[in-house]
Amino acid sequence: MWQKLQQVWGTKDIRNKILYVLGMLVVFRLVAHIPIPGVNLENLRQFLSGNQVFGLLDIFSGGTMSNFSIVMLGVGPYITSSIIFQLLTMIVPKLEEMSKEGESGQQKINMYTRFLTVPLAFLQSYAMIKLLNSSGLPIITNLSFFRLVTIMMTITAGTMFLMWIGELISEQKVGNGISLLIFAGIASGLPSGLRTLLINYDPSQFFTFVLFAAVAVLTVVGVVFINEGQRNIPVTYAKQVVGNRMQGGNSTHLPLRVNMSGVIPIIFAIALLSFPSLIAQFFAQSKSAWLANFATHTISLFQNQLFYGGLYFLLVFGFTYFYTAVIFHPQKMAENLQKQGGFIPGIRPGTETEKYLGQTMNRINLTGAMFLGIIAILPLAVQYFMGTQSLAIGGTSLLIVVSVAIETAKQIDAQITMHAYDTI
Predict the structure, then answer these.
(1) What structural domains and CATH numbers belong to the chain?
(2) For position 15, what pLDDT does the model report?
(3) pTM for the full predicted model
(4) What are the residues facing 177 on neighbouring strands?
């Protein structure tokens, strides 16, 4: 490990990229502590501590919500916009054709995603302000129409600023910018979380803490196992005569990863799980009796750990398949192999190869989706059977932190390899 760190630090280009990314993350954490004036932070933190949904959102935003900072929504609206467009790409023919145009089509979809982020952030900021003011605690004082619009525009601008920082980080090719922002938000809350844990430590719960520590270690091992697992499909290239020379005839393999989607299914699942409760709390104080009762029932349903854990597992499982289908194209792989004179032993080139790759990926993906879903709900399952409300969210946070760290380490390692080839 130390040798790898020396290689990273000794390569000027990679070192500058990493320092640039760290600088952007520092800017994010500085902005996260710039509060909007006129907010009673004590009442806000008291409300967040007693609300599981908002407490979860506060953890993933790195405490920006408890500070009521100008980036209190984090990158949530951008993630929601990305989910919407990835779903639309599967059902709208025009967007599907655009996604097949390569880099130019992807740039257009990214542009539409940014455009949709603005109204989503504006609406979410309005819903958040109204929900906080309807909590019964005086959180935002002197909320006139002009002040409401000003706060909404400020929060929207903060979300777009974080989106821009995330894209700048992604351009350095040492990690996904949005994932690293979420990583930084979660990691920044770990010291305060450990401090609170030590202050409130009860010797009678020693066995519970040991069990959660074992679950944390098991989660780390499971995530590493899933992310590193792959199946190698043997590929043989036919011999070709070029001029007076014989080329080809060598054998290699095509690696199919067990978890191609990385941490994206977890982020998508959390974004969708928090959405119904967020909307329901907005209508909980409605004057219409049936609407208020429906909203209250929705909130209580999502606070049920058994229902929440089951839905969480299904969403992670489904998004793993969905995102793999978006990024894995067996037809293109079969065409490329055929053009290059490659074939899988025992499988005919073309359509048969496409079917074989698709079926193989589905079987591999089943294992990856099952493992990822189980690891995601493992801390919730321990919490349910132990009957404790502490350390419930740590597993999901740990899952994202470990997955992002592995993904970033791989991209840095790829940068080192490319630099080594360039110097030869």
Answers:
(1) 14-201 (1.10.3370.10), 202-392 (1.10.3370.10)
(2) 85
(3) 0.76
(4) none
